[in-house]
Specification:
Elements lengths: L2 H16 L17 E6 L7 E6 L5 E7 L6 E2 L3 E2 L4 E6 L7 E10 L2 E4 L3 E4 L10 E4 L10 E8 L2 E7 L5 E8 L5 E7 L5 E6 L9 E6 L5 E5 L6 E10 L7 E12 L10 E12 L4 E6 L27 E6 L5 E5 L4 E5 L6 E5 L7 E3 L10 E5 L5 E5 L10 E8 L4 E9 L11 E4 L5 E5 L4 E5 L5 E9 L2 E2 L7 E3 L9
Parallel strand pairs: 26-30
Antiparallel strand pairs: 1-2, 2-6, 3-4, 3-5, 3-7, 7-8, 7-9, 10-34, 11-12, 11-36, 12-13, 14-15, 15-16, 16-17, 18-19, 19-20, 20-21, 22-23, 23-24, 24-25, 27-28, 28-29, 29-30, 31-32, 32-33, 33-34, 34-35
């Protein structure tokens, strides 16, 4: 269908369904009048356009857009402010032209604008060689795949389409030694990205940026007080600055006598704290691993301990909130997942490690170790990425356990082991979808794959930079939409 025919059909449908025809006769106020509309480039993302408008009395507006090679898409309706607004269009192909129409609504009555044209630009040079290689089996479902990459002097949040092409990004300047790590879409639709030189134990600064899908900076979060900011996790919950709670991990450095473990008498060791802070950085909850673990719990310590100058003994790497607000936290170096009371910090249970309280049932590999990305499923089960450093031979997998906190049993109910076996000795991610599929990121092996409930591979890919496999990625997440947070 031609542009003219499509536009005419859209306006006709609008008129028939929403009553936006101007000749309806006496009755409620007519549809809004669009006084002005303009397409502006988005300074943070060349794969995006900003459509600004003035329509006195309007409630909200959206943009419908399509190209000669893609079907029609539409943005969410964005509230107007005093009859004016800006609608952000996301997910355009590089160097492409799109047809578009602004649709403005007042009291359920809609007006469509004259034809608009959107034009995307060329990707930043640093991203032009970054691609998701999908030469493996299958193809990802509709939507986007979110991860982080650092190229040259820029740290990026990036989203790939099902063909492996970048369709969205936000870059931040990185200083020498800095990198992007944890990247997430938060429940309100905004994104967060860690940028810093920390891996979770170095005496260096780091920060989380929160930004809108359009790329506008909203806030910067760091661990309060004397803590360094850990790069593994931040959760932002609540609406408005007064109600916002920021959950993140901080760490401090202490001189520790490690001679009993084969180390030195005054080695500097990092230990982590779980923090809940207000938007302005006030600490409302603080829980320190130094108070709940000992050096005897430190299972995953380096073999050359006395020669290791920077290290941590607990390695906190994920936080999850249960329905009552308690925290489920992964501590990889003590191979333990703990649940702590959100008010008192008291430990409700420990799963794994030296002080494990659960009897393991049905796990052919005898448990997990150096785990990452522990997630609480709607049915109460735990889903996690088992790096598998202590398996013989070492092997990584995704695994799901059912915890019975009365009988104190942990039953393996599902696992996914790659064929051939993969070993990712650090990082890794898991994400469960409503259809029962699981997205697994073997980050240190540069493989991401989605599997069905029976283990069938739905698709598999890897990140490439300049035609070479990326050394490592931290996590990968599937997003149904770039505009709003949706559960896949």
């Amino acid at each position: 269908m031609s542009w003219a025919a499509t536009a005419a059909a859209t306006l006709a449908l609008c008129s028939a369904i929403m009553g936006c025809s101007a000749d309806r006769g006496p009755g409620p106020a007519g549809p809004p009048t669009i006084v002005s509309v303009a397409v502006v480039a988005n300074p943070t993302n060349v794969l995006s356009s900003l459509v600004t408008y003035t329509a006195p009395g309007s409630d909200s507006a959206r943009v419908r857009y399509w190209s000669d090679s893609e079907p029609a898409f539409e943005t969410p309706f964005i509230p107007a402010v005093a009859g004016t607004g800006t609608v952000t269009v996301l997910g355009l192909r590089p160097r492409s032209a799109y047809h578009a129409m602004l649709e403005v609504v007042t009291a359920g009555r809609m007006t469509g604008s004259a034809p608009l044209e959107l034009r995307s630009g060329d990707l930043p040079a640093a991203l032009q060689t970054v691609r998701l290689d999908l030469s493996g089996p299958g193809r990802p479902p509709p939507g986007f795949l979110l991860t982080s990459v650092t190229v040259a002097d820029t740290a990026f949040a990036v989203a790939f389409d099902p063909a492996g092409a970048i369709r969205w990004y936000r870059g931040f300047p990185a200083q020498p030694g800095e990198h992007a790590l944890a990247c997430e879409q938060q429940p309100d639709g905004n994104f967060t990205l860690f940028l810093g030189a920390s891996s979770g134990w170095q005496p260096v600064a780091g920060r989380y940026y929160e930004f809108t899908p359009a790329g506008d900076r909203v806030a910067t979060y760091t661990a309060a007080g004397a803590y360094y900011t850990d790069p593994h996790e931040v959760l932002v919950r609540g609406v408005g600055a007064a109600d916002t709670a920021v959950y993140l991990i901080g760490y401090d450095l202490r001189s520790v006598d490690l001679t009993s473990l084969g180390g030195g008498p005054t080695q500097v060791v990092a230990g982590h704290s779980i923090l809940r802070q207000s938007a302005d950085g006030r600490v409302n909850f603080e829980w320190s691993a130094w108070d709940h673990f000992t050096l005897d719990d430190w299972v995953a310590r380096p073999s050359n301990l006395s020669q290791t100058s920077q290290l941590d003994f607990d390695h906190a790497n994920s936080i999850e909130l249960d329905p009552r607000g308690d925290y489920v936290v992964s501590f990889a170096a003590v191979t333990q997942v703990v649940k702590m009371d959100h008010a008192t910090g008291a430990l409700r249970w420990r799963f794994g490690g030296r002080l494990n309280q659960f009897t393991l049932v049905g796990d052919p590999l005898g448990g997990f170790g150096i785990q990452h990305d522990v997630r609480l499923l709607p049915n109460g089960h735990l889903l996690l990425f088992d790096n598998g450093n202590f398996h013989n031979p070492p092997e990584s997998r995704a695994v799901e356990y059912r915890l019975d906190t009365l009988a104190m049993t942990a039953t393996l109910v599902w696992e996914s082991r790659h064929a051939p076996p993969l070993f990712a000795p650090f990082v890794g991610s898991v994400q469960r979808f409503q259809n029962g599929h699981t997205l697994i990121g073997y980050g240190a092996a540069d493989i991401m794959t989605e599997v069905s409930e029976d283990g069938t591979v739905v698709w598999e890919g890897r990140l490439d930079v300049a035609g070479q496999a990326l050394t490592v990625f931290y996590r990968v997440r599937e997003l149904p939409s770039l505009y709003v947070h949706q559960q896949p």
